[in-house]
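We emphasize that the prediction below concerns an isolated chain of 337 residues; any contacts that depend on oligomerization or on bound cofactors are therefore not represented. The input was used exactly as deposited, without trimming of termini.
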Amino acid sequence: MSTFEIRSYGYNYRMPISRHLNILFIITLFSASPAVSSETLEQVCQEYRQDPVELISPAENQNEYRQNENQSDDFSSGLLWKIETPTGQSNYLFGTMHSQDRVVAQFPPHVRLALAKSQPFIIESVLTEESNKVFFDSIFFKDGELLSDMISPPVYHYLQQVLPDYGVPVEKIPKLKPWAAFTLMGRPKPVNAKTLDMLLLDTARSLNKTIISLENMQELIEPMQNLSADDQINILNDTVCNHRQIIKDSWELVQLYLARDLAGMMAFNNQAHFDEDVFDRYIQGILYDRNERMLKRIIPYLNDGSAFIAVGALHLAGEKGLLKTLKKKNYKITRVY
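Result of the prediction step, given as a token string:
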């Protein structure tokens, strides 16, 4: 029997086409050789190449954000927010980054104090043996389809070189679905370190907090599964062709997070993309639809009061983000950190 492990890694919202990664996993997870082709990877990638990210200052990001959002509410910076209901119940909403970078995987005293005095602790997703099984069962073709028949030989060859670094043995690549391939490799190579979310979860358990998971594994992977085969292949090609730049860009995203620059993270996400239609479909499922679902699920806990809610920081920001939407519903929003 195969053994495997899945670890939640995180959001790199400047993925290939979308430059946006929602769920990233390490797995120890079948190999056919693609047909011989004279086409090179460089030729395949000519139309997909993306320019490097130009990081601008948090002040510039936040000023542009305010102008574009045309709002008086300043939700352009901050990660920890106090949420008060119309009846006066207090709660906390914290934006995380699902990164194994050690400079990210720490949380300040403000967050620790807010968590200590809150009950329950609500997190985006809690990984379990059952959720691992759901993910593992979903990432492989079971109907005889092969990844090597769907993509060009140079792209497939690149995957054979790179995916083992992300926990996928070469012999298991042929049956890997395109969405699983781009999800796995759309971030830095995994390391043996916990994410900020994991550390928060450990702390909540040590404080005997009630743990509530906002989403299950099937809900997390549905946005990728629901993409058409063409969209999946488009994103996979884009991921391969810009892979080195994506890894570099991940550092830029870390800097924006450390600066608590929600506006910068939104700007990072909203750059020009190779195919804007594909990006729009992807971001709708991976971000906006999930924002709506999260909102419906957290409101009862907010109304009860004393909840601490931790979700990816991009779910907080923007016109369709949780902060602005809660404000429209007459919740009082105050930045804490």
